[in-house]
Structures are given as C-alpha cells and as structure tokens.
Design brief:
With about 550 residues, this protein is α/β, with parallel strands linked by helices. The chain contains 17 helices and 15 strands.
C-alpha cells in the first residue's frame, strides 16, 4: 500500500473508532440518522451523524494540548536562558506522579485519571537514568550531585568525584566538583536553595557543600579523622562562600544544625552544634539587607524589594508533611509554594538572572514509611509550587525543569474501575462492564488496595504487633482490610518484603521541562545530563570564567 493511502486508511479507521455515530458521509451513504443530507453529491454533507472531530472530548483535548505546546516554542540557542529553576521531587517516581495526579483530580471532584499536575503540562519530557557510580539503586547525595555538577559519583557523597572513599576526609583532595549554584555565584547571578527537608540534608546540601559523607550535617557529626584532615560540616559551608555575593535565599528545615547545643529554638528543641556558633546570627551579620525567619508569618512579611539575603529555617528537623501542615493550620510553616514565590520575588531583582533549586523532600520520607497518602499530598504540593513558578516567570527566558532524584518501590496494581479512589480498596467492573459494588479479593478472599509497596514496614498484620523489629506478626498473614479505612492519611500500605524502612527503586525517573534548552531533555539520558542542559541554556561556565 502506498504511504498516502496507508495514512488515509488509518485516519478513516480512527474516525470510525472514535465517532460511534455511523458514517460521516464520505462514501455517499448516510449515517444512522442521516436523513437530512443537503448536498449529497459526494456524500461530504450527506449525514447529520455526530461529527467526532468537533464534539468528541478526547479528540478536542488532544487538539488543545498540541495547540498549547506549539505556543510554548522558545529560543533554543546556547545562552538563551536568563534564569534556571530546577524542581526535584525527592523519591517522585513515575508511579508517584500518576497516583498524585489521580488523587489531586479526585479531591477536585473529578474521576481523577484525566487530571494533570501542573508540571505535566510542560511541553518537553524525557527520562533520566538514576544509578550511582557504585550503586544500581541510588541515594539522594549521588543523584543530586550528578544533576548539579554534571558528574556522576558514589552513594552518600556530596559534590565530590568518585575518587573519594565515603566517610574518609583524607581521600577528598582534588575531588571537589563545581556546582551550578557556585557557577551562578561566580557569574554574578542570584541563587537560591529551597527544601521541605533539612537544608543540610543530602539533596539541598549537594548544591552548595562538598563532603565525602552526607551525614556530616553539623560539626558534632564530624569524626576525629575529618576534623584533623580539615573537613567541615555542611551547615557551616553554607556560610563560607566567597563566590560573588553569597547565596541569596535558603529556605527549609534543619534549624538544629545552625544553632549551638546551649540554645533552644521556638519549638523548644536544642541545637546540635558543639562549636558554640550560631550560624543564623552569622547570616544576618554577614549580609547587608538580610533577614532570618522562623515561621510562616515572618516569611510572608519579608519585603522582597528590600531583602537581598534571606535565611528561613522553619523546623528543628524536617518540615512537616504538607498534609499535616494543612490539617494543623497554616500559621506555623509555609507551604512549598509560598517559599517558591518569596524566593522568586527576591531573586528576580538581579538583572543578570538567577538559579533556583527547589526540593520537595518529604515525598521520599513518606514512602520510606510506607505511607502513600502523605507522599502523594507532598507531590501535589510540589505541583502547586511549580504552578506558582510558571506564573511568576516566562518560558521565553526561564528554563524550568521538574524531575526526581530517584524513585521508590511504590506500585499501582489490580484492575480498579475508572475513578476508583486511588487510596481505596480495589473495586473492578462487573460482567456488564459497570463498576462493581464488591471489593476485588485475593486467593484467600481478602480485599487489597490499588497502591502498595514491594518492601517496607507494611508486611503482614499490622494489628498484632508481634515482631519487635517491624511491629507485626509475620505468621499472621494479611489482615482483613474490610475493617480498615485505607484512605486515611495514617494508613500504611501493605508490602511484600518485610523491612524496617521501604527502599528506593532503581528505574528511570521523568523529567518535565519548558523554556530555552528544554528541547535537550528528550529521550532517555544520564542524570548528569541535566547539569549540561542548564549550562547550555545559560552559558554558566562561560559566564563564570568571564567574571573571574
């Protein structure tokens, strides 16, 4: 068959498959209700059967998506981007994105599956391979290092090359890697780091710190070998910058790593530093037009027009899960969207542009606990933060990327009917194709949930509490979920393999992007490719070299 005939045949088949309204008259025959054809000579108007190209919602939605993507075309030349915003959903694998999309839609009153998170509307998408140099399944330190330095490294290592030995300070000579944040500082751009985890935790720390051990968050964490060989803790490195004017915005948790162990914070928590330093006071003393905030009200009150350096530490450790933050009220901690908005307001004052890196850090922690609800709510909070960033910037001069450092062993399974609650028990379709009123059951007659984990704390019967290591009786088997509210935020989904904590997974993660350089984030790429796209889009290395 000739190519043009094949195309026509496929188009015809597609039309018949979607319309379900009889012929459109192209063969001269009327459709099921085609009695009022007007011209009828070639059949082009010989039917009043419904025209699927005009009313079929799937077809129209596809047309609209293409039209929106077409309007987002940008300048892809090197150096075309003024700003870069990199969002990282820690542990946000593809299954997490899918489940969060459905939950978000269902909370809006939709069936859910047709919904889209804000970043899923970005015009470019690809996949990143997440393995570390020494790990098939990676950790956050090695993966974030790849994204911000362009170099893959070992598990547990922060922005140092694979020549280091983890936890050995003496092995770090000549191994430091320059990060995109440091390059931006050298070039005179504004910079920011935001996280819902401790800002000294692995993902945010890799943007500004260099260490062979991700757990050296404050000076009390340093072993004697590290001290004697001149290594410093992660929190102190945040204040040690001599590049440009220093980092402009740092927002997140981890207050305890910045204050001495003789000081308590507003929560009544004691600091962890043994060197007596109060790094929060050092921040305001070091920078002109600076501010330090500890709660949501203080953050929202910051005048972005007069503030050039902002440090916000909103929890002694990690910030609250977004579900808990909103359930407890919004007065204590800001949302990720609010931190994003304030950061952009401050950074965009710099005429040269800015580099902003934002982590939704607690998706990962909820998954480790086998708690899907909180992981998905934090993913939805990330979507809201991305929406704010999209509104406050332009795709004509801002490269915006959304990705994950790694995934989790989180699954969506069974055969639930369309619109079934994503956190609920599986209900399929009956023999007539209608949603069943009965729960689907396993071979033992027990119901099961749509989402679950391959490993973790949710193995067997959580009610019996017979195993001190995991809090359950391994011999008891699965519990009867007919008597459990699986949609409660406190429910921890079942798991196959018993572990004290659910683990990361090793599959590729998605990258969503818009703006100059976004076209380079297509197909399957190595994770360190992300840095090189940032560099291409902004000419960071060239700008930094020119400024020296």
């Amino acid at each position: 068959m000739k190519k043009h005939l094949l195309v026509l045949s496929l188009a015809a088949a597609l039309g018949l498959g979607l319309s379900a309204c009889g012929s459109d008259g192209d063969n001269g025959a009327a459709g099921a209700s085609g009695s009022n054809g007007t011209n009828g000579t070639d059949g082009s108007n010989g039917s009043n059967g419904t025209d699927w190209t005009n009313v079929n919602s799937w077809y129209i939605d596809g047309q609209n998506r293409v039209a929106r993507a077409d309007t987002m075309a940008t300048d892809n030349n090197a150096g075309a981007a003024k700003n870069v915003i990199l969002f990282v959903g820690d542990g946000m694998g593809v299954s997490t994105v899918t489940a969060a999309r459905i939950l978000d839609g269902q909370m809006k009153g939709q069936m859910g599956e047709e919904n889209s998170l804000s970043f899923e509307t970005l015009p470019y998408a690809g996949l990143a391979k997440t393995y570390n140099v020494d790990g098939q399944t990676p950790d956050s330190a090695g993966t974030m290092t790849a994204m911000v330095t362009g170099v893959k490294t070992d598990v547990g290592v922060l922005s140092q090359a694979e020549g280091v030995t983890r936890g050995n300070c003496a092995s770090t000579s000549g191994q430091n890697l320059v990060t995109s944040l440091e390059l931006a500082l050298m070039a005179g751009l504004a910079t920011g780091v935001v996280s819902t985890a401790r800002v000294t935790h692995a993902t945010p720390a890799a943007t500004y710190a260099h260490a062979p051990e991700r757990n050296w968050e404050n000076d009390s964490d340093l072993p004697e070998e590290a001290v004697s060989n001149g290594c410093t803790d992660i929190a102190s490195q945040l204040l040690a910058y001599d590049h440009g004017s220093g980092i402009n915005v740092v927002l997140g948790g981890g207050r305890r790593n910045f204050i001495p162990n003789t000081m308590t914070d507003p929560e009544g928590s004691t600091g962890r530093r043994s060197d007596g330093r109060d790094l929060t006071a050092e921040w305001t003393a070091k920078y002109v037009n600076s501010a330090y905030t500890q709660d949501r009200d203080q953050l929202l009150a910051v005048d972005a027009s007069t503030t050039d350096h902002l440090l916000g530490l909103f929890n002694s450790s990690h910030m609250d899960y977004d579900y808990d933050r909103t359930e407890d009220g919004v007065n204590g901690e800001p949302s990720l969207a609010e931190m994003t908005a304030k950061s952009i307001d401050i950074l965009q004052k710099n005429d040269k542009g800015f580099v902003l890196i934002i982590e939704a850090g607690r998706i990962d922690h909820a998954h480790h606990a086998g708690n899907a609800a909180r992981a998905l709510h934090d993913t939805i909070a990330l979507s809201e933060a991305v929406r704010v960033a999209m509104e406050k910037t332009s795709s004509s001069d801002t490269l915006l990327m959304v990705t994950a450092d790694h995934s989790h062993v989180f699954t969506i399974a069974g055969y639930p009917t369309r619109g079934n609650p994503i956190l609920g028990l599986v209900k399929g379709n009956d023999a007539n194709g209608a949603p069943s009123v009965l729960n689907a059951t396993d071979n033992n007659g027990l119901p099961y949930t749509t989402v679950g984990y391959t490993n973790g704390r949710g193995f067997a019967n959580l009610e019996t509490g017979g195993d001190e290591r995991y809090g359950y009786d391994v011999a008891a088997g699965r519990m009867d979920l007919n008597y459990v509210d699986t949609q409660s935020a406190g429910f921890h989904q079942e798991a196959l393999v018993p572990l004290s904590s659910e683990t990361h997974a090793g599959e590729d993660v998605a990258i969503f992007a818009s703006g100059p350089g976004a076209h380079l984030l297509q197909g399957t790429v190595e994770q360190n490719h992300i840095f090189h796209v940032m560099n291409h889009a902004t000419n960071l290395v060239t700008q930094a070299q020119a400024a020296q």
